[in-house]
Amino acid sequence: MGYGILPPMNHAVTRDSLKLANTHYENFPVASVLLPMRLRKPIGLIYAFARQADDFADEGDLVPEARLALLDGFRKELDRIAAGNTPDTELFRTLAAMIAERNLPLQPFYDLLDAFSQDVVKTRYENFGEVIDYCRRSANPIGRLLLHLYGEATPRNLGYSDAICSALQIINFLQDVEIDYRKDRIYFPLDEMRKYRIKEAQIASHDAGGMWWNFMQFEIERARKLLQSGAPLGLVLKGRIGMEMRTIIAGGERILSKLHKHRGDMFNHRPALTPRDWGYMLYRAVRAK
User: Fold this and answer.
1) How far apart are CA 66 and CA 29, in angstroms?
2) pLDDT tens digits for 72-82?
3) 235-244 pLDDT, tens digit each
4) Alpha-helical runs (H) found in the chain
5) Is the domain of 57 the same as that of 89?
6) Potential cystine with 193: which of 2, 145, 168, 198 (Cβ 3.0-4.6 Å)?
7) Which residues contact 250 (CB under 8 A, 6 or more apart)?
8) What are 91-127's pLDDT values in tens digits?
9) Residue 222 DSSP SS3
10) Is residue 139 within 8 Å of residue 248, measured between CB atoms?
11) pTM of the shown model
12) What is the number of alpha carbons within 13 Å of residue 288 lying toward its C-beta?
């Protein structure tokens, strides 16, 4: 991911934690200028937590045991917050104050750490159920935390958000097949690969021939349906928050369209959002009713 491993202790929150977001490639905005100013700092802080923990699992040359130890250090800091004790690090002291002020649940933070730890030890997924279970902990917690920040964490909205976040995670898997494989990870369900006669060697050789397009059509369509099932949240949420959500959904749709256009060949045509795409997404977000 490119940010580098940072030590778990003495990690200060930057003056503007949103700067951390700019050090990584992201197709989907996390705390964009569309959001009200009052929400940008807490969202940036949540992202700083997730980004650093994700880097513990991904970046540098650490052995798995060291990565898991770093993540466990974050868990212990969350435990201190849960127990009402003062965390040891500046990052978590700032996070604790924000969690208390905004009355956020701690479980989504723990879920994120569980997902990042899983990335260290699990590199293959037998079926779609295992993939969705991973998404439940790797992506859905962010949406849930945002809804709590917005004061909109109703059961219906949480369900919509889970669908959107899982879909966006799967879309990232689809566009990042090559990147993930370099880390010895495949997020495609293995039983579906077998069904379409897709071998790991095909991914390794960047081969989009054979049944690849049939396979990718299935994956793209399922991700699209999942994204669409959560799309009503963009209309439920009002004002700039709703506009941000509609823009994110439109971004997911654009990536899927680009994947479809190139017959699922992300090896030679990895989809990325251009300024023209952003204009289209914003237009869609404004016009949606």
Assistant:
1) 31
2) 999 999 999 99
3) 999 998 999 8
4) 37-58, 64-82, 90-102, 107-121, 128-138, 140-150, 155-175, 177-182, 190-195, 200-204, 212-230, 233-236, 239-261, 275-287
5) yes
6) 198
7) 280, 281, 284, 285
8) 999 999 999 999 999 999 999 999 999 999 999 999 9
9) helix
10) no
11) 0.87
12) 25
Please tell me whether residues 268 and 163 are part of one structural domain. Answer: yes
Q: Nearest-CA neighbor of 221 among 192, 199, 179?
A: 192
Q: How crowded is the C-beta side of 86, counted as CA atoms within 13 Å?
A: 2
Higher-confidence residue of 282 and 34: namely 282
92 with 127, same domain: the answer is no
Alpha-carbon distance of 115 to 200, in angstroms, equals: 23
HSE-up of 45 (CA within 13 Å, CB side)? Answer: 22
Q: Which two tokens stand for residue 1?
A: 């991911």
Tell the residue number behind the tokens 């699922």, with chain if given: 264
Among 72, 104, 136, identify where a domain stops: 104
Which is nearest to 94 in space by CA: 186, 154, 14? Answer: 14
Residue 266: CA count within 13 A, CB half-sphere? 27
Residue showing tokens 């919509």: 160
Task: Please report how the helices 128-138 and 107-121 are oriented relative to each other, as an axis angle in degrees rounded to 10.
Answer: 130
What local confidence, expressed as pLDDT, does residue 36 receive? 78
**Is residue 71 classed exposed, middle or buried when 0-12, 13-18 and 19+ CB atoms within 10 A define those classes?**
buried
**Total number of domains in the chain:** 2
Q: Are 232 and 243 in contact (CB under 8 A)?
A: no
Q: Which domain range does residue 21 map to?
A: 14-104
